[in-house]
Amino acid sequence: MDESSARDLLETALGEEPPIGPIARNSLRAGIGLRRRVRMRRAAGGAAAVAVAAAVIPAATGVFGHTSVGPHPETLPRTPSGTAYVINSGGGTVTPIDLATNTAGTPIDVSGEPVAMAIAPDGRTAYVASGAANSGAEPTSAQTVTPIDLTTNTPGKPITLAYPADAIAIAPGGRTAYVINGFPSTSLTPIDLATKTAGNPITLRADPEDIAMARDGKSAYITIVTGTKTAQGAFLSFFDFATFDLATNKLEKPVKLSNGGPEAIAIAPDGKTAYVVSQSSSSMAAVTPINLTTNKAGEPIKIGTRPMPKGVFGQPLAIAISPNGTTAYLADGASGTVTPIDLATDTALKPIRLSGKPGSDAIAISTNGAAAYVANQPSSTVTPINLTTNKAEKPIKIGHGWDSGFEAIVTAP
């Protein structure tokens, strides 16, 4: 997709298309490859990085007529603290932002074209996965995971991967990272973080899309795409959520997702519920709660979005959850909004609109819960949102135009 088409995706509401899942495509893999190329281009990333931090919101009226009353907003800290790290895919860098002053620091060079990032539990090292731009190509030296020392903002020697990277997560113990391998692989690569070496890819029975870690460190949660061939020779794509046992390296019985291609996973702080974001139709997003105790999906929370151009899949969607479990924040790149969701009632509240040419491509929350930060590809900015008032503040300028490609944002103390 060229630059003009990408701009149209975010700035122009074009015609409707039929609902997305399941989608008949010429082949399952070709469909996955298309969606991932679109996702990389519009910069939501294989995994929109979620920073867990305390956040509450004032009473508001939901877009579907429901009312939610949360904790008093005065309990929130007034000034954000910590640092945000923004992936610039086109520039091959990670930019730190001082959240107390909203000041962007010197970009950190990393290997390849970065698409996802995770921070070790001790907060000292970040790991940046690169290589989704090579989807469908032979392995190259650009398919790597680059460690960054966060005390000095210095990149270390890249860890070479056998396949392109699409997402990354780190087990709670901090010993192992797991990389979702991009198309054409159907595998997951473990990385020993003590020795900085990649293990043998673990072949899965379906194409993995995104990954999040269980709080107990025994499992990971992976969204996957499976397919079946019809009598007419076409393929139907189906979307699942599955627990991955880290001891046996096996996927357990999946939970069926009925709302199109999954874009992101967020786990509630108590570890009991996962929230999977997907594009339900050309003008609707869905957040599906999944009870991790019973392995059952609840009723999807539906949120209206700007219609997508015909034939375009992979709407920019990302999610972050407050650590007290009261609120999720859904970033919608097509509409340029962030929608709070009351998780006690599974109710979507009034959207927060961002100014300028926002993309709302990735979202994270400051570690003290005072603000959310939204990475916008079209304007090469990061927009702070005051979570006491639910108001967007002055964007922070980063990068140099459309070749920035903000794939992810994460925060650290």
What does this structure look like?
- Helices cover about 5% and strands about 45% of the residues.
- By secondary structure, it is mainly β.
- Strands 1, 18, 19, 20, 21 and 22 form a six-stranded antiparallel sheet that branches. Strands 4, 5, 6, 7 and 38 form a five-stranded antiparallel sheet that branches. Strands 8, 9, 10, 11 and 12 form a five-stranded antiparallel sheet that branches.
- The chain is globular and about 55 Å long.
- The two termini are about 35 Å apart.
DSSP strand count: 38
CATH A-level architecture? 7 Propeller
Number of helices: 2
> What is the name of the CATH class?
Mainly Beta
The residue fraction in helices comes out at: under 10%
Shape, please? globular
Assess the beta-strand content as a share of residues: 35-45%
Q: Can you summarize this structure?
A:
The chain is mainly beta. Helix content is 6%, strand content 43%.
